[in-house]
Design a protein that fits this description.
The protein is an alpha+beta fold. The chain is built from 17 helices and 32 strands. Strands 8-7-6-5-4-3-2-1-15-14-13-12-11-10-9 form a 15-stranded mixed β-sheet, sandwiched between helices. Strands 16, 17, 18, 19, 20, 21, 30, 31 and 32 form a nine-stranded mixed β-sheet that branches. This is Amidohydrolase-related domain-containing protein.
Length: 668
């Protein structure tokens, strides 16, 4: 970067009209450059941004042109390229006088808005987020209507001076509300140009200033935690040492039976007694009347990558336990502590260690290793830190699996993961896998060949193209399923994300969110129309057949007695509900689906706490629903009360705080 450009960007002198500028940023993954954003600002003020990054063979590639009016609001936008998973992006917006019109791969429309509005492109670059922030800072009350719908607000949180190539640069962290469930955070420099973005292990920093990313992320995490702590104070009802849930028809999840209305006595967050009012006397105790509604153990999501802002959505959707399958140690330990204490609203959290080998496709989490010896040392470290399980990833060499399994089992831990590239699932099971993540890995056991590099998107596309033609009743498939049962290998299908991937065409509603989309914030509703893969008339039927085949595989696994654990690896809460609906669609009885998501999952998670059932001595992690999930599995969406040990939450209040229209009003 030239001295002149450096000064222009970061010393913040006055910028003269008509001067051409260029802003350059690195996209960082785990602190290492993996892409870039380049924004060129022409003499007439038009902006042209090029944005791309690579993440294990995936990543967006976007070209964006924006023309602004004197108030800094877009009057013309064109966006083209591809999404993170490769779906096509084509979008145009134009405002001519009082008329605004747009067309995209998602939708099209025409409005005559009154007053200032900002068009939020469906697949805009990070530069557009900075333009929105700048427009909001200029707007009355720092609010703006959005097109196609919604409203955005901005709040300045804190300023900080960073060191960029030895020079001090002052930037301010802002929170933009209205784009999603929780605020979007962005750092702007003193010219109100984009300075940095942090999305956990990914984000943007000025070109060549990678150190900024970690520092900005830390400060942003602190600000986000403060926001979430305020929500926890507002949205949590702490209960006395002993209290009662009255008149609850409780579900014995192991027996699959619904019991008559009873009282549930809770003492210090643990169920003390369950029985009829004659047997469990709650006179004189604080109480909440369930009014004859159904109560079941809280749900478990067995495949998450936990973040602090996920906790509210988990609890609002009745998820009181999760298993983290890949995160930084400090992050997951901090979250577990904050969720347990109530500092943040969130579920009970079980940990899994994570190991991958350094490669161009290394997963962007944990500490990747170079050698088998380093992998074994990392296993020892996880064991010393009390992890019950370790997940390995796609770049682990097949010849490492057996010694890794031996070391893990020697510590009394379980081994799970992706099937390493150039290895079959059957080989992984025979060498010691206790659990397999993702149903596509089972299909690849039969569909991949020696040329298939499953570290890349080939692990999705191969199944999408050929999964529908796999004979699920063939001897080969039946023998493999029998092996899974014989070795008691657990399968974590995350079938909802593949069903969505293989069926969701851009412009149509995501199957995951279709049933709830009318309840979501407008910007989220629009995003729900963004497809993943490039699905067209030529491949749509083939991909849908692969999605159907995955449901067929789920049913055959269950019928054979292979243990399944419901997990999401996607937007939390809503995806778990859809995952369970897909199990029911595959032919698994509702009572069994609920057992898989409660007692069975809790047993496999093995937190060291009795949880997952309604019985004396079990933790009081409870979900009260309006409806009977034994008859309609979708009743799980209609939670009216969630109990997490000694704390009570009302889903309607949490949903409203996130800009979501409640599905049912909570118990008073």
């Amino acid at each position: 970067m030239s001295i002149r450009l450096f000064a222009l960007l970061f010393i913040a002198p006055a910028v003269h009209a008509g001067e051409t500028r260029e802003l350059r940023y690195d996209w960082l993954t785990q602190g290492e450059p993996s892409g870039s954003l380049v924004t060129r600002i022409g003499e007439d003020g038009q902006r042209h941004s090029s944005f791309e990054f690579s993440d294990r063979g995936r990543g967006p590639k976007i070209e964006e042109h924006i023309q602004l009016d004197a108030a800094g609001l877009p009057v013309a936008i064109t966006v083209e390229g591809r999404t993170y998973m490769g779906a096509s992006v084509q979008e145009e917006f134009k405002r001519d006088g009082a008329t605004a019109q747009w067309t995209s791969t998602l939708d099209s429309g025409r409005q005559q808005p009154e007053g200032p509005v900002f068009y939020a492109a469906a697949e805009g670059t990070p530069d557009q987020t900075a333009l929105l922030a700048r427009a909001l800072l200029r707007a009355k009350d720092q609010r703006l209507d959005l097109l196609p719908a919604g409203e955005a607000r901005i709040e300045a949180l804190q300023s900080h001076t960073f060191q960029v190539k030895g020079q001090p640069v002052r930037a301010t962290l802002h929170a933009i509300s209205g784009l999603g469930f929780t605020p979007d955070f962005i750092w702007l420099d003193d010219n109100n140009e984009l300075f940095a973005l942090s999305y956990g292990w990914m984000g943007l920093a000025p070109e060549g200033a990678t150190g900024v990313f970690k520092e900005a992320g830390r400060l942003q995490d602190d600000a986000e935690a403060a926001w979430l702590r305020r929500r926890a104070e507002e949205l949590t009802q702490s209960m006395p040492g002993r209290w009662c849930l009255l008149g609850a028809r409780w579900l014995d999840v192991d027996a699959g039976e619904l019991n008559a209305a009873s009282n549930i006595l809770v003492s210090d967050g643990v169920i003390e007694a369950v029985g009829t009012p004659a047997k469990v006397d709650c006179a004189g105790l604080a109480s909440i009347d369930a009014g004859g509604r159904v109560v079941l153990p809280g749900l478990w999501d067995m495949h998450v990558h936990a973040g602090a802002d996920d906790g509210l959505l988990h609890i609002a959707n009745g998820v009181t336990g999760v298993r983290d399958l890949g995160n930084d140690h400090e992050v997951v330990m901090g979250l577990a502590k904050d969720f347990a204490s109530g500092e943040l609203v969130g579920p009970r959290l079980q940990r899994s260690g994570f190991i991958d080998k350094k490669s161009p496709y290394t997963a962007p989490t944990g500490a990747p290793v170079d050698t088998l010896e380093q992998a074994l040392e990392q296993i020892d470290a996880y064991a010393a830190q009390g992890y019950p399980q370790i997940k390995i990833y796609s770049s682990i060499p097949p010849e490492w699996v057996s010694p890794i399994a031996k070391r893990i089992h020697g510590h009394g831990m379980r081994l799970s993961g992706h099937i390493p590239a150039f290895m079959t699932a059957e080989e992984a099971v025979r060498q010691g896998f206790d659990e397999i993540q993702h149903v596509n890995m089972l299909f690849l056991n039969f569909l991949a060949d020696e040329e298939t590099d499953t570290r890349t998107p080939a692990r999705f596309l191969k199944v999408a193209e050929k999964g529908g033609s796999l004979d699920l009743d063939s001897t080969q498939v039946r023998d493999f399923i029998a092996l899974l049962k014989e070795r008691d290998v657990v399968v974590d299908p995350t079938v909802a994300i593949f069903d969505n991937m293989f069926r969701h065409r851009s412009g149509e509603l995501s199957p995951i969110l279709a049933k709830v989309v009318d309840h979501l914030p407008p910007s989220v509703q629009r995003a729900a129309r963004t497809g993943r893969l490039a699905i067209d008339d030529e491949n749509a039927a083939r991909y849908a057949a692969a999605a159907d085949a995955q449901l067929g595989m789920i049913r055959r696994l269950h019928d054979a007695g292979v243990r399944l654990v419901p997990g999401t690896d996607a937007v939390v809460g809503f995806t778990l509900h859809h995952e369970l609906e897909l199990y029911a669609r595959a032919g698994i009885p509702n009572a069994e689906v609920i057992r898989l998501a409660t007692s069975s999952a809790a047993d496999i998670a093995d937190t060291g706490v009795k949880v997952g059932r309604i019985a004396p001595g079990q933790a009081a992690d409870l979900l009260v629903v309006d409806g009977d999930p034994l008859q309609d599995i979708s009743a799980l969406r209609r939670g009216v009360l969630v109990v997490r040990g000694d704390r009570v939450h009302r889903p309607d209040a949490i949903f409203r705080s996130l800009g979501i229209k409640p599905f049912v009003e909570a118990i008073p």
